[in-house]
Amino acid sequence: MTSATTITDDPTDPFLRQAQTYPQLNAEQIERVRTHGAEEVFAKGTMPYERGQRGVDFFLVLSGRIEVFDFDELGRRYVLTTHRERQFTGEMNFFNHREILVSVVVTAEARVVRIRREQFQKFMAAE
Known about the structure:
With 127 residues, the chain is an alpha+beta fold. The protein has four helices and four strands, in the order ααβββαβα. β2 (58-71) and β3 form a beta hairpin. The protein starts with 17 loop residues before the first helix and ends with a helix. 13% of the residues are buried.
C-alpha cells in the first residue's frame, strides 16, 4: 500500500524551489536593470502598492526588505515572501494589467531601482 502524497512532497511546488521562484540577480543584471529605471529610497512602512491596484511598477531591491503579504478569509495578515537585496517584485500584472493580488510593505528602509509601468514593456523587449 502506498501513502498519499502531501502537498509538501510535490516537487513542482514553487515554494520548494525558492531560488527559481524568487531569483537573485547578479551584478551585471542589476546594472542592466538600472539603465531602465531610477533609484529611490523607501522608508520603513511605505507601501509601494496594494492589492487591487492596476499597473504597478517594478522594484529591484538594492538594500533593505520588502514584504509581500495578503489576508486570509478571517482577515489575518500572512506573509508570502520577503524580497531582499538583488530580488525583485513582480506579478503577471506587468503583462496583463489585471488587479494586483497581493500588497507589499517596506519592513526595513529599502533602496530600490524602480521601473515605471510604462517603461517596463520597453525593458522586457530590450532584455
